[in-house]
Design goal:
The complex is a heterotrimer of chains A (326), B (347) and C (439). With 347 residues, chain B is of the alpha/beta class. Chain B has helices at residues 82-89, 112-117, 135-141, 151-154, 157-177, 193-205, 223-238, 250-256, 274-279, 281-288, 299-311; strands at residues 42-53, 56-67, 71-75, 97-102, 105-106, 120-122, 211-215, 242-246, 259-264, 267-272. Chain B has 3 domains: 19-129 and 191-289, 3-Layer(aba) Sandwich (Rossmann fold), CATH 3.40.50; 132-189, no CATH class; 290-347, no CATH class. Chain B is 31% helix and 18% strand. By secondary structure, chain C is α+β, with helices and mostly antiparallel strands. Helices cover 53% and strands 11% of the residues of chain C. Chain C contains 12 helices and 11 strands. The chains are: A mainly alpha (326), B alpha/beta (347), C alpha+beta (439). Chains in contact: A-B, A-C, B-C. At the A-C interface, helix 4, helix 5, helix 12, helix 13 and helix 14 of A face helix 1, helix 5, helix 10 and helix 12 of C.
């Protein structure tokens, strides 16, 4: 069992582009749930909108990189708007169910065989990240960062991904300490009180939904860039629940919580996976096989979610006094 | 802050001295006091406002005018429809029919947040302060005209910073008046029930409203704080605001109300100055029921009651459906159950 | 909290006792080597693929063996030979569309394809891991075109059957919501549990009826344990309903993959899964669907009777309506909730068994697949109302089946979800739900 390899692999997760994508999507969720109290269980749907919007714009319509990104974001805004109209008047529990339904509808649509030409249905789409890598300023070669070695492509993807995360964190930070953010915090606790103070609650909720959704779609694009492939099976409810785990782990009503949560999530997952696989491979553990170890991960996440909400609902960085939902 | 209005004599354009609202003794109503009477200077006029829930009329107000610069109390037994009426007027519920205007502007179909912006603010029966926000943040939330609340301007502190400072000054002033300034940085969840009521009232004043509607401001407040709350409500009038409040506490009503409106079963049954209204038979009946003056302790009293009930068309006493209501009361005394009872035709 | 750690200990014990080397996992959002989300590459023998295309070959009622069937599509090609019972099954890696062809040169002497039979034909997966294809032989099944009316009636019957088995799960969910405020995301796993237990018990050689009874009792037991071990302690602590909902999500994840650990990722059939078609006039319906319809109708009526006429039923409705008021009038709210969870588990388990006959097949995530439909039904009818859940389930069931007349099979759930969203647009509290008063 190569402990050094396992450890470096786990540490590598801290800067991995997938972690960045999860962090960004969870940041969107922080705005939705942490600050506004919207129970959005369809963030996987926003990620799918972003990924597919980008991929389809590039492949089917031959759009250049920036145009494809804009198309993806426009789709995301439209989706948020359409989603918001029926749902923002609903109570929290109804909203959670309707958002899952909406995300699943998106997944059914991209999986159906009727639209194979555009969506690739179950097989998905590949080979649309050319425009992105064409912008890579780093010269060919390998870059050694101590515990990890990256190619020029890997480095570029990470730099871009984490820059986007940083910029979005900054924007969210500015927003939540502004009067606009104050109205959101009021809404998450008591909508009617905020209405009685003259604020158009529906409009604020819609704005929060759109912004958080845009973050989700950006995350969806970042998700697909490392492998230049998008597959519908990845955008199911499991993804949403993983995002919620990252969010709650770090602290739902904080700006850095989603980022810290995503990093912690992936490091722990990678570590346990590495240790388990290594132990099974080396014959230390014989009662489960490798595929079963994969299932173990889901069980771990499930149990972690339960323990988190029971014992530390404010997560790592949260403030218990500001916790609206416990 | 409220601007003093010119004298009602119609000398518009001539600025007279501010009318002292506390000592203004001009008559409130322009007609003799009766349900739906017109007022000299109404701020709120409601016509034919109805709201039915599954066949029952929760609210059925034919006509009501609320006088400006006065404190009006809305009283009535539980279930009379007072809170529902509040909800209808402020846009938190949709009526089945009716029109109402505030300062001349129709409010029918206007959503609740717009109603608030027009100068008509309300508080709630169950206090709605944001426990997870600090007291000062609760107060800042109540302010209006803060451009930073718009998404387009929120990112740029230099645009909204100035107004934020103004708002904070205003908030601090109000907090001091309500004696909550020491709690400024505390989370509102740590306040006592009475302090939360004060906070909700103070927060409502941040918008400089013209009409303040308080839904049971005394409910759940410990008696030591009621005097302070009463003083605050009286102060509102001195600053030119109109107050409409729902209450059960007759002490408060007698103490500070200039005008009383009585609701029962969704309808207005009486209006007038407090002293007169308290003596009105219709009001007493509404609260205590039509047969309240029967002394049930004496044996004759029971017979009188049974006699009255048997005459009452709506009562089941004397009919075959009466169950244990009719007979048995006198039977237990060993008296003849048929004595003093009218027999109705059996179905 | 000792109970949570007990739960963890149980998981650990289960793990240690799980037989190693169970069947393949399903394509997971996390690959096995790096956390980048991509499904595992198809490896291994065709039998270990999680999805199958299958069918039965019969000529004048007699099984036909030795015939080769080929399936091509999704970048994959596979074939199978029909067995002595006439059955054939081709494992495929991905759900999608395949071209399935019967090699007529392998048909025995004197056996031909029926007139008008399509060969090759397109087979599309409809969100279940098994897709069927029937090649009629000889006189075969008279491939007649149906009138629209007959098709509609057939679909509505199927929809009614589906809706009623949904109702079994929905009623439990709605009652749990009404009495405790919890939106139970783990309800799907109680459904799966019923089917899995039935598979297990019938695998031990028990007769079908006994296996079913035991499975349903097992479901009830799981409901009972959930309330006594997890939900009641959380309620005692005063946990809010949103944290409880998230706890149920965690429980659902953990339970689902624990089931997969034991059951594996493939689809298995319950005994008697293949049932003959019954002709009712010009409409045909599978015998299993008909039995399911009858059973669920009876059970729903029994539940309705219990709720309306018995003391416990009235107490349950009182608690679902207003727990504080019910408690103040002397009703043992905790006791009622315990019963609701147990009965909810029983109903969900039965629903799972019927769902396994309907799909057909038992899969570790079969409950998750209809969880959304259950939610749609409950929300459509009005969260917290039992009759709303019933009405909502029937609407969802009929919609799902009738929509296949116009929509492709793999989109049939979309219609039901969209209907839910549209109804909520106009009636945010659901059909039979109540609006909340402000203030």
């Amino acid at each position: 069992m190569d402990f050094l390899n396992i450890l470096s692999g786990a540490l590598g997760e801290i800067i991995s582009p997938t972690t960045a994508a999860y962090a960004l999507a969870a940041l969107g969720l922080a705005l939705h749930f942490g600050y506004t109290g919207l129970l959005n269980f369809g963030q996987a749907g926003f990620m799918a909108m972003g990924a597919y919007g980008f991929a389809i714009a590039t492949l089917t319509f031959n759009a250049p990189f920036w145009a494809a990104v804009l198309v993806a974001l426009a789709c995301s805004v439209a989706f948020a708007f359409l989603l918001g109209i029926p749902t923002l008047r609903l109570r929290a529990d109804y909203l959670s169910i309707v958002t899952i339904a909406a995300a699943e509808v998106i997944r059914y649509i991209v999986t159906t065989n009727q639209l194979t030409d555009i969506t690739g249905s179950a097989g998905g789409l590949n080979g649309f990240a050319g425009g992105f890598y064409a912008l890579n300023p780093f010269p060919e070669g390998t870059y050694n960062l101590g515990f990890i070695t990256l190619s020029a492509r890997d480095l570029w993807v990470r730099v871009v991904a984490w820059s986007v995360v940083a910029v979005c964190c900054f924007i969210v930070w500015l927003l939540v300490r502004s009067p606009w953010g104050r109205v959101l915090k009021g809404i998450r606790e008591d909508e009617n009180a905020v209405r009685s103070l003259g604020k158009n609650v529906y409009s604020y909720k819609m704005q929060a939904l759109i912004i958080g959704g845009v973050f989700g779609s950006l995350a969806g694009i970042l998700f697909t860039l490392p492998r230049s492939s998008v597959q519908p099976a990845n955008y199911g409810t499991e993804l949403t629940f993983f995002l919620w785990t990252c969010l709650l782990l770090g602290g739902a009503a904080t700006v850095l919580g989603p980022v810290v949560g995503a990093m912690l999530f992936w490091v722990v997952l990678s570590l346990t996976q590495g240790l388990l696989y290594g132990a099974i491979g080396a014959g230390y553990i014989t009662f489960i096989s490798i595929p079963q170890a994969g299932q173990l991960r889901y069980i771990m996440v499930g149990v972690a979610l339960m323990l988190l909400m029971i014992f530390r609902p404010q997560g790592l960085l949260g403030n218990k006094k500001e916790l609206v939902y416990s | 802050m409220a601007n003093p209005t010119p004298d009602e004599s119609g000398t518009a354009g001539v600025r007279t001295d501010a009318v002292d609202y506390m000592t203004d003794t001009r008559p409130i109503a322009s007609e003799p006091a009766a349900p739906g009477c017109r007022k000299r200077d109404p701020i709120l006029v409601a016509k034919n406002v109805t709201r039915a829930f599954g066949g029952i009329n929760a609210v059925d107000v034919e006509y009501l005018e609320v006088p400006r610069h006065k404190i009006t109390a809305l009283i009535g037994p539980n279930g009379a429809g007072k809170t529902t009426f509040f909800n209808l007027l402020t846009g938190f519920d949709q009526p089945n029919s009716g029109e109402w205007t505030f300062d001349g502007t129709s409010l029918h179909g206007v959503p609740s947040y717009k109603v608030s912006r027009m100068g008509m603010v309300r508080t709630f029966q169950l206090t709605k302060v944001m426990g997870k926000l600090k007291v000062i943040e609760n107060m800042r939330l109540g302010a209006t005209r803060q451009e930073g609340e718009k998404l387009s301007k929120a990112l740029f502190k230099n645009i909204w910073g100035g107004r934020e400072r103004e708002i904070t000054r205003h908030a601090d002033g109000l907090l001091e008046k309500f004696k909550l300034d020491t709690k400024r940085e505390d989370y509102a969840a740590s306040l006592s029930g009475g302090q939360r009521k004060l906070l909700e009232m103070a927060r409502a004043l941040m918008a400089d409203p013209k009409l303040v509607m308080l839904d049971e401001p005394m409910a759940g407040v410990n008696p030591a704080l009621t005097q302070s709350l009463l003083d605050h409500v009286r102060n509102l009038k001195s600053e030119g605001m109109t107050v409409l409040f729902v209450e059960h506490d007759m002490h408060m009503v007698r103490n500070i109300a200039d005008w009383v409106v009585v609701m029962a079963e969704g309808r207005i049954v009486a209006e007038g100055p407090p002293a007169e209204v308290m003596k009105d038979q219709a009001v007493i009946d509404a609260y205590l029921g039509a047969h309240h003056d029967v002394d049930l302790g004496a044996a004759e009293g029971i017979e009188v009651l049974e006699h009255q009930l048997a005459q009452d068309k709506e009562s089941v006493v004397g009919t075959a459906d009466e169950g244990i209501l009719g007979h048995g009361i006198t039977e237990q005394d060993g008296r003849d159950p048929d004595e003093g009872r009218d027999r109705k035709d059996a179905p | 909290m000792g109970l949570l750690f007990a739960l963890l200990a149980v998981f650990a014990a289960l793990l240690l006792s799980a037989p190693a080397g169970q069947a393949q996992t399903m394509a997971a959002p996390l690959s096995t080597s790096t956390p980048a989300p991509s499904p595992a590459e198809p490896t291994g023998t065709p039998e270990s693929f999680p999805n199958t295309i299958s069918g039965v070959l019969r000529n004048a009622g007699q099984p036909v063996a030795g015939v080769t069937i080929r399936a091509t599509g999704e970048g994959f090609s596979g074939e199978a030979v029909s067995s002595a019972t006439g059955g054939w099954s081709i494992g495929v890696p991905v759900q999608g569309t395949y071209e399935v062809e019967l090699d007529v040169s392998t048909l025995p002497e004197g056996v031909t394809l029926a007139e008008g039979a399509q060969n090759p034909r397109q087979v599309t997966f409809a969100n279940t891991s098994n897709a069927g294809a029937i090649f009629p032989l000889g006189a075969g099944i008279v491939v007649q075109t149906q009138s629209f009316g007959e098709l509609l009636v057939e679909r509505m019957l199927a929809g009614l059957s589906f809706g009623l088995l949904l109702a079994l799960a929905s009623v439990g969910l709605s009652l749990i919501f009404g009495t405790t405020g919890l939106t139970n995301f783990a309800h799907g796993e109680m459904v799966t549990l019923g089917a899995v237990l039935m598979f297990f018990f019938s695998g031990l050689g028990m007769p079908v009826w006994l296996a079913a009874v035991l499975a349903v009792l097992g479901g009830g037991l799981s409901g009972y344990l959930q309330d006594s071990g997890l939900w009641k302690p959380l309620r005692r602590r005063g946990t809010g309903i949103i944290p409880m909902m998230i706890v149920s999500i965690g429980l659902a994840l953990a339970a689902r993959y624990t089931i997969q650990l034991f059951f594996g990722g493939s689809t298995r059939q319950l005994p008697g899964a293949r049932s003959p078609q019954i002709e009712l006039g010009s409409v045909s319906i599978s015998q299993n669907t008909l039995i399911s319809l009858v059973i669920s109708t009876v059970v729903v009526l029994v539940v309705a009777f219990l709720l309306l006429k018995t003391r416990i039923g009235k107490a349950t409705r009182a608690v679902a309506d207003n727990p504080a008021l019910a408690s103040a009038s002397g009703i043992d709210v905790d006791g009622v909730i315990r019963i609701v969870w147990t009965v909810g588990g029983v109903l969900a388990g039965l629903g799972g068994i019927l769902w396994a006959y309907y799909r057909p097949g038992v899969t570790f995530n079969m409950g998750q697949q209809i969880l959304l439909l259950i939610f749609a039904a409950v929300v459509l009818g009005g969260l917290g109302t039992v009759f709303g859940a019933l009405v909502g389930s029937i609407i969802v069931g009929v919609f799902v089946e009738v929509s296949t007349i116009w929509l492709e099979a793999d989109l049939k759930f979309v219609g039901a979800l969209l209907i839910m969203i549209i109804v909520l647009l106009f009636r945010p509290q659901g059909i039979l739900g109540r609006k909340e008063r402000v203030g």
